[in-house]
């Protein structure tokens, strides 16, 4: 089984797959009588049709090493995962190739980070590492399934080395 190491989630490394949402750098502007920093427009939301919707997901935590058997993508819209706790979670992505998803990459978020997968990005399922696995999810609400799954012939083992 091929092993995949876990990297820290850094915006530059994740950029081909989507966006890292966090409060790095100075706020774009101060609001609410100067008591709230607004970090403006942090995600590239993409929808071919339909509309953006906010759903809540409550996922069971996973353990490491994690057995990656399948990735999915959403051809009609981006998908944003916003943890509702300060706990890290695992983010798995893979480049698109002519044969399907390429070699997966795994990232561990830091507390306070959320992610946005760009439309058509191969990614693993929601993978919290601790309970509760409560997330707000912003994605496309509209006609059609907007889901493609790819099952690997041989699973990957995602771990720390």
Describe, in plain words, how this protein is organized in 3D.
- The chain has one helix spanning 11-14; strands at 2-8, 18-21, 29-31, 36-38, 51-59, 66-73, 79-83, 89-94, 96-97, 100-101, 105-108, 114-117, 122-123, 127-128, 133-141, 148-159.
- The two termini are 13 Å apart.
- The strands form four sheets. Strands 1, 6, 8, 11, 13, 14 and 16 form a seven-stranded mixed sheet that branches. A five-stranded antiparallel sheet has the order 2-12-7-15-5, with no helix packed on it. A two-stranded antiparallel sheet has the order 3-4.
- It is globular, with a radius of gyration of 16 Å.
- The chain is built from one helix and 16 strands.
- It is 2% helix and 51% strand.
- The mean pLDDT is 96.
- The chain is mainly β and 161 residues long.
- It has one domain (2-159): Ureidoglycolate hydrolase (Jelly Rolls, Sandwich), CATH 2.60.120.
